[in-house]
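Two entries, shown back to back:
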Amino acid sequence: MSFVNNNTSIKALRLLGVPLSQPFNSCAWTMLQLNVPFQIKIAVPGNKSSKIGTRHENFLSLTKHRSTQVPILIDNNNDNDNGSENFVLTESAAILTYLCERYGSCDNNDNDGPKLYASPGTQRKAMIDSYMHWHHTNTRLVSKLFGGKIKPEWKATLSTDEDKFIQNVMASIDTGWLQQQQSELESESKTTYIGGFNKPSIADILAYGELSTVTMTNLLDIDENKFKNLSSWMNTMSNLPYHDEAHVALSTLGDLNGSSSNDNCTIIPSIAKRLGAATKAGIASYENAQSNYRTIITSSSL
């Protein structure tokens, strides 16, 4: 599913990271929904020895503050605001808002595409921003469930307090963020998204990125009897445009429950192979998904 806009005539953006990174995937999925052409440049989180690692000088030199985090967005559709040929941006929430504002996905944009962000000074924008600030110290921490399976230095077993924290996060989304009706119009809607609005936003995409990673790999079960709103929202999100294409890496990776070893702090070889296969499949899926709107590809090496 795609819409007609002028984004297909722009130079392809570059997104650095890997499809199994939750923030990376949220940004890449958003770009698909906006029909923004982009190329993926692999950057392996935490790796220093490889030239494609995020702690290698090749990656560190991309930003003045020498970021080690993915994703990084590089946009060379220069508007001369900073006098640089390439605009480099870090932090997933900032990247998501930039993409929407730059490439026509706000409520005040005159196109038939998704309105994943809101106009300045509106309550919808304030609520979206509010969730994305909250996200970093709440929903984002659910990633420990996933990281514990693929990073030997992380513990896969959660403490009682950590498990309680995750349950509280799900409860906050279930009865809080998904139940904040903003107007009579929204209250009449059968579908409620984060902030209580009747259409999805980048806040939903960011939240879903974390939760889908652990549900699709069988690391977290969302009890639909306990979290009715959250469960319904997860199902609704799975029907958004390009959902399946954006989550091929996770579906390829499959069940991770009981698939790691922390006794000797090593990654089981079969898991390492699965990670590689999932990454390859995810990148191919993103490339194929763009085939119906990506007309101009600008190749550029880092």
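entry 2 starts here
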Amino acid sequence: MAIMRAATAPRKGWIRTFFGITLGRMLKWLLIAALLLALLLAIAFAIFVYWPTRGIPNLQRIDDYLTLNQGWGEALDSKARQTYYYSGQGAVMPQGALSSPLRYDWFIHLELPLSTDRFAAPEHMRRYRFIVDPQPSAANPDHLPVGFTQHFDPQRGERMLDISCAACHSGEIHAEKDGRRIAIRID
């Protein structure tokens, strides 16, 4: 019976197996794990950052702006038109799944991935086909798209980003005449 016990090898538990690994083998597995993690991060970057930005349309140049006479005034910067475009109406822009409002200062300072360019820059917002006035105005000093407004939230003590009716109920047709691109604003 004593001979039988000596012939069978003692069972190793997972702790004994883990601590029985040589340093070289452990470094090899750590290197493989680090390479796999780096590969997964590169794939995640490509899927969530690089690929979505490749699908954004190119910026179209606009040479002239034209407004139709719809009772707002003839100019883009007429008081009635600016009031319609940039007056907050309480429709806050939700942030994430919690539907808490997005802070205005966060939005205007948000940067593009791998860049110091602002996400809310007029050129970038126009690439998403938002309507942006050619110049900032007193009603829109941060030069945001039509319908992007703000209100002060006394509970948070900060300005919050709003979306007004003008964001969806204003349009712009781009037409070309004599080699010049004209943006025709329809409110």
